[in-house]
Structure formats: structure tokens, C-alpha cells
What we know:
By secondary structure, this protein is α/β, with parallel strands linked by helices. It has a domain at 25-150 and 197-245: Decaprenyl diphosphate synthase-like (Undecaprenyl pyrophosphate synthetase, 3-Layer(aba) Sandwich). It has helices at 4-19, 35-41, 47-68, 87-106, 122-135, 151-168, 173-179, 182-186, 234-246, and strands at residues 27-31, 72-79, 110-114, 142-149, 199-202, 221-224. Strand 3 (110-114), helix 5 (122-135) and strand 4 (142-149) form a beta-alpha-beta unit.
Amino acid sequence: MGLRDPLYWLYERRLERRLGTFETPRHVGVILDGNRRWAKTSGLASVEKGHQAGAEKIFELLGWCNEVGVQVVTLWLLSTDNLSRPREQLDPLLRIIEDTVRRLQREGWRVNPMGALDLLPDATARVMKEAGSATSDHPGLIVNVAVGYGGRREIADAVRSLLQTEAAKGTSIEELAERLDMEHIAEHLYTRGQPDPDLLIRTSGEQRLSGFLLWQSAHSEVYFCEVFWPAFRKVEFLRALRSFGARNRRYGL
């Protein structure tokens, strides 16, 4: 064992002990950024290997979240903007996502598909829907899998769903406008019935949310991490939790 290994282990244990005095976030959202850049800086022949390494990291993260008592994890795997990538880039990524979702299902995680599934290829959408249906009654941690996801699109979909639901009841536009409030829209979001995210993490050093959980993140704490997603370690996760726990959360300005 090299010198860095025991030092890393000791630092990890120290962080874990300190977390006992802090509040644990119920819902953690993660923008899994930096797979392509990690592959390039690691000298790998294909960026696909970066996406594969990033997919493997997901299962480590879920284990860490389970250990500390997180109830919901939202993983942003693919944005609506990403769907416009050239097929030679997009197709391998979709296959990795499909394999990841199947593994989530096999391992017993409760999968909740999020995103504009109608924009996805039929095979990918089918895998997402099947995993959601097969695991819907599983206990424990909920894993929101955001594929073909955009925050603005989610809000538009929520409003559309709300209008369709109310129209089916015979509600007029005038009646709906009279009593519409924020909760009516929230009930039609992809995360309906779940707590809003307490903590959002973005890897790779980018300091923006790019519309991730646009509606739900009004009061979220945000943690930006410099490392690329495949290199994200438990220490980085514990640091994010420490940062969250040390903040004095204000639900206003």
C-alpha cells in the first residue's frame, strides 16, 4: 500500500466522523460532468471509455448515498441539447445509458425515469419505462434517471399535463387561472411527490446549473467540484455533505 492510501483512508474517516454532527440532505442532485474531458486527459483512445467509467461511478455514488441516509438521488445523464449530437457520438452513449438503467433495475434500485422520453430512440425509452415500472414498488433510495432532460422542458411538460388534466375534468381556462398556484404545477413535475433537492453537485469545475431541476432548485444548496465525474471519490462526496451541513440555509433572499 502506497503512502497516499492510508492518508486518504484517515482523511475519509475524519470526514465521516464530522458528518455525524450535520444534517443529511434528503435529496441530492448530481450533474455528472466531465466524462469526455476525463477520457482525453487520461490518454484513452475513445471518449466512450470516459462515459463507461462515469457509468461505473454512479453505483459507487449510490452506495455512498445509501450509507448516509439520502432518500432521493437525481442523476442528469443526458440533456435535451445532447440529443442533437452526431449519431456516432450519441449512439454509444445511449447504449451505455441503457446498460446502466438495466443494471440499476437488476440491483434493485427504485428507478424513476425523467425527461422527454418521447424524444429518445424507442429502444432507450423502452428500457427507461420498463425499469421504472419494474421497480416502482421497491423500498429505499429513489434514483431519478434524467435522460433527454431539460429544466425548461420539464416545466413546459408540467403545465401541459396540468392543462390536460383540468380539461378532462371540465375545468375552463378562466376557472384554472383563478385558482392556479405553484403547488398545482409542482404536482405535475417529473419529481412529483418527492422532496425538492437540498443539495446539487456539479463536477468538472463548471459553475452553472444549465437548467438542472430549474423549478425544484429554488432553495437548493449548490456544490461545485473541480474533478471530472469519473475521478469523483468518496472524499469529494463527503466534502460536499460537509459543505452542505455547515451552511445556514435561508429560504429567501
